[in-house]
Design brief:
Elements (H helix, E strand, L loop, with lengths): L4 H35 L3 H22 L5 H13 L5 H24 L4 H22 L3 H23 L10
Length: 173
Amino acid sequence: MLKKPLIAAILSVLIVLASTLVSVHARLDPICADFRDKFHSSEIPKGLTQYCSYSTEILQLAADAKLQTREAHDSVEALHKALGEDSAAKLFSRYQKLSAAISDVKASLLRSELSEADRQALERLDAALSSAQTQISESDYNSRTSFLLRKELGSFSCFVARLCGVRLPEQFA
């Protein structure tokens, strides 16, 4: 007979808990890593790359018109460098910052005296930016992320996964 049954019970509970955490990590970490990796090959980064490219062209128009564009230029560089490296949530934050900066540059360009060719180029680039934004917003990545986190994993599994160090996929929001 055990001399200390309370200690044996506590040890048993700890062993079961540790085993559960190791099992959850072993099962969910590859699933979540694969899902995060798929983000970087989804339509969102492709749209962000296009958005950066068109933004750079707009910044060139602004530079030709002698407008200050340092903030927008820095935002393009930051987003471009972050593609493929940062999480979906961080990319979204950088995208929002760039979008606001480019909107300011476009407004400044519209107030300036542009040649007809530059005005047409700005209209073409604005349409291209809208197209890239549509590609980004129509991606099904966020709905697939929600489905994975809520339906396939569930809130308890997500809670346990965070406890054992699994990096869950983030939404682009």
